[in-house]
Amino acid sequence: MNYTLLAGFISFSLVSGFTPGPNNLIALATGANFGYRRTLPHVLGVVLGFNILFFSIGAGLGSLFKAFPLAHEILKWGSLAYLMYLAWKIATSTGIGPADKSGEDAKPISFFGSVAFQWINVKAWVAAITLVTAFTDPDAYWTSLAAGGTINIVIAFSSVSTWAIFGTLLKRFLEHPVRLRVFNLTMAALLVISVVPSVLKA
Fold this sequence. Notes:
With 202 residues, the protein is mainly alpha-helical. The chain is built from 9 helices and no strands.
């Protein structure tokens, strides 16, 4: 295995994993509104969903875009539409923590919702395609792909958890309704902004 490529894989994964993006912003907002325990399904969903995407692209799914350009358009606009929906859910959230009784729809993104979201998350596709094409070793392809998957598990769990925990630490500050409202509206706006450049550039 080429350890230079492996080091590059780790470096790119760390930067991509810990910088702001849809997964991390959702974790931050969910942690602030519901606490870490109820954000954990989202964290685990990102880990599983991204690795499924990573291995699927590694197995050749990335060529789908070249063969069927319409698939790329569906991904692009589906991502934006779903992000708008998630942004609306965050913006209209009105309570903090699991004891919130403000409405039956006040609940965080589910595990399976988070897994599925990776397939329309433009940042996840860009990261997975880059990792597969730039940082796998052609001479030990499947070994480096398996190693990359293991690295993805550690980094994805660590990065999304970090954002969720940071959100949880903000809970006490956000117990004031006005501050919570401002925070949720800000997170909703940032969530939309985080994906628009990738969607328009893609």
